[in-house]
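Whether sequence alone determines local backbone shape is best considered at the level of individual chains. The sequence in question and its structure tokens are set out directly beneath this paragraph.

===
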Amino acid sequence: MNNPGPNIESSRDPAQKPVLPDARTISKLSQPPKQKAPLETEKTESFFVFKCAGHFFALKPAWVGEVTPSVFVHRIPHRSGNAIEGISNINGDLVPVVSVANAFKLDSSSGKSSMMVLCHVGGEKFAFETDSIEGMFSVGASRIKEVSEGDSPFIANKFDTDNMQVWVIDVDLLAGAIARRAI
């Protein structure tokens, strides 16, 4: 037998008549919904995010010149070993290479880096090796937090994504320290 489903008519009280909408209700239903005032859109900032020594860091895109495969880093006598790893020839330019792990006092036992990020700050260039490139992130201004005094002097801000905490590097301070040979 073919079961047509529940009988709606049989479940209704026979003494109760169906209620039909009046003309005013039909008119309201046929109009488009009232538009709410547009919500203020939150200002966002874009960041280039990468991983180094097991931590996530970010740069403003204007500071990133290019991403290249890692090239040999030449050690500089009496200068290498701190935050400056050495110099590399990147596209014909000799560029200081910064060790992010050493600059931020991190354990750098995560393995060999496969990429280099070349930064441009003013007329200065420097590079650093990275474990991976995570990509570009657009972050709402309310998610960007100030850092405490105890954090590295080269960290400007931080933000959290769904699965990682990201430290925003203050490239101006870092480039200044490189130029003054303070690191």
Observations:
- DSSP finds four helices and eleven strands in the chain.
- The CA atoms of residues 154 and 173 lie 6 Å apart.
- The domain at 44-179 is CATH 2.40.50.180 (OB fold (Dihydrolipoamide Acetyltransferase, E2P)).
- Residues 4-12, 28-39 have pLDDT under 50 and may be disordered.
